[in-house]
Design a protein that fits this description.
Layout (H helix, E strand, L loop, with lengths): L2 H9 L4 H17 L2 H4 L24 E4 L2 H7 L3 E2 L8 E4 L2 E3 L7 E4 L6 E4 L2 E3 L10 E4 L4 E4 L2 E3 L3 E6 L5 E3 L2 E3 L8 E6 L6 E3 L2 E3 L4 E6 L5 E3 L2 E3 L6 E4 L5 E3 L2 E3 L4 E6 L5 E3 L2 E3 L4 E6 L17 E2 L46 E4 L9 H4 L5 E2 L8 E4 L2 E3 L7 E6 L3 E4 L2 E3 L8 E8 L2 E4 L2 E3 L3 E6 L5 E3 L2 E3 L3 E6 L5 E3 L2 E3 L3 E6 L5 E3 L2 E3 L4 E6 L4 E3 L4 E22 L6 E7 L3 E9 L5 E2 L10 E6 L19 H4 L2 E4 L5 E6 L11 E7 L3 E6 L1
Parallel strand pairs: 1-5, 3-6, 4-7, 5-8, 6-9, 7-10, 8-11, 9-12, 10-13, 11-14, 12-15, 13-16, 14-17, 15-18, 16-19, 17-20, 18-21, 19-22, 20-23, 21-24, 22-25, 23-26, 25-27, 28-32, 30-33, 31-34, 32-35, 33-36, 34-37, 35-38, 36-39, 37-40, 38-41, 39-42, 40-43, 41-44, 42-45, 43-46, 48-54
Antiparallel strand pairs: 2-3, 29-30, 47-49, 49-50, 49-51, 49-53, 50-51, 52-54, 55-56, 56-57
């Protein structure tokens, strides 16, 4: 770390003290004028996720862990785990009301253990200097996630703490006392990640770093803070990307005496004094406002994009800085409105520019990445209504790596391959976690091989998924819900359907026989048919066990694969008997039977004797018992026998035999 070295150099600059004093006075002046932002209501343009609030845990006014995790786990039911990577200590579903004093949660001197703070809510921390909703001090390897820190003086504070992750939290309205920071990372807190948080309406800074290196700040929404959205001071080698920095009262991003900070693919909108400031009095302090592919979106950019690649050809230079000779510059500014406006998306991999190309699309806020296996293009979190015309998302002629994930895609056209997502001549795609509903096809693939389709909801479509001339794709862990047909494969081979789920489930709806009612003897063959609610696919040799007396018959599957009716041919064996043939129970069918999308069939049979069972549908008697004598009687009355023929009567289990006796 080189912070101490830099500070010694800066002290040699005689006018630094004057500059910093002026800056602090300016900061305070601005802070006094922005209290209105602290109490404003979030409006509809905040596009933030709903942060799940924890249940209230009674009588918690504070939590303090000074490396004594084992004691805490042993004495408090709201803490669990063992502190390893695979089993971190966990504090979750806790509400802390600090009562206006000190910190809500304080963890210090926890160096080697791993821990998670999840789904917690902290209110009313103290208003003294650096009293915080949660404070990590000299603490590493923590994750603070899905929690709410609001209406306090300072939301989240890290001091001399490394390798922590702050993710998916709501940090807002930190305006009590004189501090007013949402998230502060300070005093040699290095290698931390701050991502996907909602940080807004804080009295001074949304996110502030000081004297802390190699921190990554990405994909946060930072807006309506009283001074700067993101303020970085004396911190080197930090990365900022994918952040929405909007409507902050002074600067969107302020880099103050920083070196080698990389800022790219952020969106700067409506920040009042300037979208960005980059200042330093030291010649070796150089920051970068674009990477090799893309810069940032600036709402006051006035350049042009004549080649249609989504990148402006004129650099962006509207930075406030105190050393104009350094000229901080974004050489690859994003051109045009990068935000999704509700229309259908069509990307053609054969296009090298224009609004149907991957190059142009990757400059939009709804698409990221570079198309490699390590950094695929990602289209995510869109809601598209095709209006009963064509496809919501159509991607064609593409061999780059890409993902479409977490989108809601509805109301495609009624063409044979129209879909929520259509891939046409595509390889290397991943479709993950999308909701494709009320389309002709939820997902359709034409001439598309080696793609992965997983964890999607395919609901109320005619076809859940349709494949045409598309091979070796993997379709797994999707939910097929009330589609007319869950899947159709045409001219396609080698596709793998596994672990998918269907509603309604694949069930047995009827058991019967093609044989006529009547009595069947030894070696007679009875075909038993089991009807399913949809087409089934048989693996191995399913078996059906029949109730046939002392020795139940186990009958092997005979035929019916890829239909909705399976046949089991039962050959009557010696000593089998049933007055009304049926299976032994509703669990009498065993084996591996799946639906067209690899969903396991429910093999529960109708209860014997109930509607839909074999005995309810048919009246079949099985009698192959071996004849045996059950009774012997004489036709003569009691008394002496005369020397004349007599008759004895033998009763057997099937026939009455009259045997003359000489």
């Amino acid at each position: 770390m080189n912070n101490q070295f830099k500070k010694k150099i800066v002290l040699l600059v005689t006018f630094l003290g004057i500059f910093m004093l002026t800056a602090l006075i300016s900061f305070q002046s601005n802070a006094n004028s922005v209290n209105q932002y602290a109490n404003s209501v979030i409006n509809d343009d905040t596009n933030m996720d709903n942060i799940r609030k924890s249940d209230y845990w009674p009588d918690l006014t504070s939590i303090h862990i000074d490396a004594n995790w084992t004691y805490t786990v042993g004495n408090y039911s709201w803490c669990s785990g063992s502190g390893t990577w695979n089993d971190p200590f966990l504090i979750e579903n806790v509400t802390v009301d600090a009562g206006g004093t000190n910190h809500g949660i304080l963890i210090n001197n926890s160096i080697t253990q791993y821990f998670i703070i999840r789904n917690c809510t902290v209110r009313n921390s103290g208003t003294a200097f650096r009293d915080a909703g949660i404070r990590l001090e000299n603490t590493n390897n923590g994750t603070i996630i899905n929690s709410d820190f609001s209406t306090i003086s300072l939301g989240i504070l890290l001091l001399n703490s490394d390798n922590n992750t702050i993710s998916h939290n709501n940090v807002s309205n930190c305006n009590s006392g004189d501090y007013g920071y949402g998230i502060e990372i300070s005093e040699d807190s290095d290698d931390n990640i701050i991502t996907e948080n909602i940080v807004h309406n804080n009295q001074k800074y949304g996110i502030a770093l000081s004297s802390s290196d190699r921190n990554d700040i990405f994909e946060n929404d930072v807006y309506k803070n009283g001074l700067d959205g993101i303020y970085i001071y004396y911190s080197d080698d930090c990365n900022l990307w994918g952040n929405l920095v909007k409507n902050n009262s002074r600067y969107g991003v302020d880099l103050d005496y920083c070196d080698n900070t990389l800022v790219y693919d952020n969106y700067f909108i409506g920040n009042e004094q300037s979208n960005a400031r980059d200042q330093s009095l030291l010649a070796f302090h150089i920051n970068y406002w674009n990477n090799t592919y893309i810069g940032n979106y600036w709402d006051n950019y006035t350049g042009v994009d004549s080649n249609g690649d989504g990148i402006g050809e004129d650099p962006y230079t509207y930075f406030l800085n105190t050393q104009p000779s350094r000229n901080p510059t974004d050489y690859l500014p994003i051109y045009g409105d990068p935000f999704y406006e509700g229309g259908k998306i069509h990307i053609d991999g054969n296009q090298i520019s224009g609004n149907k190309s991957w190059i142009w699309s990757s400059t939009r806020a709804w698409c990221s990445g570079s198309g490699t296996s390590e950094d695929p293009y990602i289209i995510s979190d869109l809601e598209i209504d095709a209006g009963d015309d064509g496809n919501c998302i159509l991607i064609g002629n593409s061999s780059v790596y890409f993902k479409v994930e977490n989108c809601i895609l509805i109301n495609s056209g009624s063409g044979s391959m129209d879909a929520g997502i259509k891939l046409d001549n595509v390889v290397n795609a991943e479709l993950i976690g999308n909701n494709c509903s009320s389309n002709y096809c939820g997902i359709s693939l034409n001439l598309s091989d080696n793609n992965d389709i997983t964890e999607n909801i395919l609901q109320n479509n005619y076809y859940g998924i349709r494949l045409n001339y598309s091979d070796s794709n993997t379709i797994s862990e999707n939910n097929f819900i009330f589609n007319t047909e869950n899947a159709l494969q045409e001219n396609s081979v080698g596709n793998t359907f596994q672990n998918n789920y269907c509603t309604p489930p694949l069930t047995i709806i009827n058991v019967s026989s093609s044989n006529a009612d009547g009595t069947y003897r030894y070696q007679d063959i009875i075909e038993i048919t089991i009807e399913f609610s949809d087409t089934v696919y048989v693996t191995g040799n399913p078996q059906l066990t029949l109730e046939t007396g002392d020795n139940d018959a186990v009958v092997d599957y005979t035929s019916g694969n890829e239909t909705n009716q399976l046949s089991f041919n039962y050959t009557v064996e010696l000593d089998h008997y049933s007055p009304d043939l049926d299976y032994i129970s509703n669990n009498a069918l065993s084996g591996t039977i799946k639906g067209i999308v690899g969903n396991f069939a429910n093999l529960t049979l109708p209860t014997p004797g109930d509607p839909g069972s074999l005995s309810a549908n048919k009246n079949i008697i099985v009698d192959a018992r071996t004849p045996s004598i059950t009774d012997v009687t004489a036709t003569n009355s009691d008394g002496s026998l005369l020397p004349s023929p007599k008759l004895f009567m033998l009763q057997v289990h099937r026939n009455l035999l009259l045997i003359p006796v000489p």
